[in-house]
Amino acid sequence: MNNSETTLPTSADISGLNFYEMTVNNGTLYGVDAGDFMSNGTLISYDLSTNSLINSAEVNIIPGGIYFN
What we know:
The protein is mostly beta strands. The chain contains no helices and 4 strands. Strands 1-2-3-4 form a 4-stranded antiparallel β-sheet, with no helix packed on it. β1 (21-25) and β2 form a beta hairpin. The mean pLDDT is 91.
């Protein structure tokens, strides 16, 4: 949604996501899915200008945050 908008959108541009934690950095949405909380989770990234999947990678068990250096 644009910075100038005063109301929330009525539908999602990207649907079907279920993130345990997420953040946005440089126009990219990063989210982690903890899955079943007993096996490895997934880090997923989306380009917010096109709403398309950039990458998906397996990470350790119960990923709980996304950090940038």
